[in-house]
Amino acid sequence: MYVMQDEAGAIALMIVSLWCLGSWPALFNLLERKGRIPMHTYLDYTFANYGVAVLFAFTLGDIGPDTPEAPNFLTQLFQENGPSVAFALAGGLALCLGNISLQYSLAFVGISLTEVVSASVAVVLGTTVNYFLDDGLNRASILFPGVLCFLVAVVLGSFCHASNVADIQAKLKAAEASAQTLEDNGSSFKNSEASAPLLINHPSNLETHSKYCADPEIGGSAATGAEYFESLESHRAIKVKGKSVLFGLGIAFFTGLCCAAFSPLFNLATNDQFHLLKPDVPHLVVYTTFFYFSTAFLICSVLVNVYFLYHPVLGIPKSSLSMYCQDREGRHIAVIAGLLCGIGNGFQFMGGQAAGYAAADAVQALPLVGTLWGIVLFREYYGSSGKTYSLLIAMLFMFATAVVMLVASSMPRDGSRT
């Protein structure tokens, strides 16, 4: 079994994990906006994610010497480690429910705000629990100021989102004034309030809508502005028109609670802080825990998403297993998302076992990566005001500072204070 014992190597794993875990939600968001049924995407993602866990188990978890203190993966499958397995399974269930809710939150409030809310809740709660589970392994004088930076980033993120909404509403009024000149052609811009959520969640639509209002050939058609946004809404998989942004924030908060739970549960599975294992039974190694963790994730994901195939919510079209098997469009993107998530989780757990799970929670600074993807892929904050951009830069700076501080708080698990 390969064991990561080098602190610098553990930090490198955390950095790669941060990039992976911050990138895969952007691919989910991309597929949803293109109209792919979320359950199809999630099932593809799940199978790819599980494949990574199996690969880790049979390679990194089964190479090298097989000792009583650190048995290989196959050896541990037949040991009496039920309590630790139960914690690993519970962690997988928590992450699965969190990631399922995350994809719906992405549709309601966008990738930037979803990751700001969920990641910050996960870090504040999860990091604190992991610190005490690891018996103060990480440097508290650096760790908790880093957590405070996450909280500051949350506040800045909230102000940034509010400022961006105000910018969009101002542009709506400008577009409405422009459209007044087309009233004689029967193309007045109506129901701007009802259309605002679409623009808030899809800032790139504002430019398209402005062109629509300014073009007499298009604007002069029989379709009204409301009908135009109905056609926009019809292209996406999850219907958000008329839904409260607070509903999306509530989903994002639930996502954060689930993400706050899975890392401490994984920590308990690998280190048995409650001493539930028999004295002669070794602790679960990272790769065995990751395997059980991902198995629970797989089972929960299949059950929930197959149910949603036949009983969809939020206006998602009804589907079936046969339709899922035939839906190959975007499958490669969903598989890449699953691979990124699996690698990111595996590296997070390897780094956490080597340098403390509280420090490894630095990878929950997903907005640092997710916001960049939101700007590049989805043009979030496109054409916003200087105030919004200032808040955005400040938020990203605080997240970057938090990551540096959490990583800097790491120490070797062998008890060394160097």
Please give a structural write-up.
- The protein has 418 residues and is mostly helical.
- It has one domain.
- It has helices spanning 7-33, 38-58, 73-76, 82-133, 140-179, 192-201, 204-214, 216-219, 225-235, 245-271, 286-310, 321-326, 331-355, 357-360, 366-378, 386-408.
- Helix 4 (82-133) crosses helix 15 (366-378).
- The model is unreliable at 187-195 and 198-230 (pLDDT under 50).
- It is found in: Membrane.
- Belongs to the plant ureide permease (TC 2.A.7.19) family.
- InterPro entries: UPS_plant, Ureide_permease.
So what's the overall shape?
globular
Number of domains: 1
Low-confidence stretches: 187-195, 198-230
Integer average pLDDT: 81
Beta content: under 5%
Features:
418 residues; mainly alpha; 16 helices; 0% strand
Question: Quick gist of this model?
Answer:
This protein has 418 residues and is mainly alpha-helical. Helices cover 72% and strands 0% of the residues.
List the SSEs and their pairings:
Elements: H1 7-33, H2 38-58, H3 73-76, H4 82-133, H5 140-179, H6 192-201, H7 204-214, H8 216-219, H9 225-235, H10 245-271, H11 286-310, H12 321-326, H13 331-355, H14 357-360, H15 366-378, H16 386-408
Subcellular location: Membrane
Pfam family, one: Ureide_permease
Protein name: Ureide permease
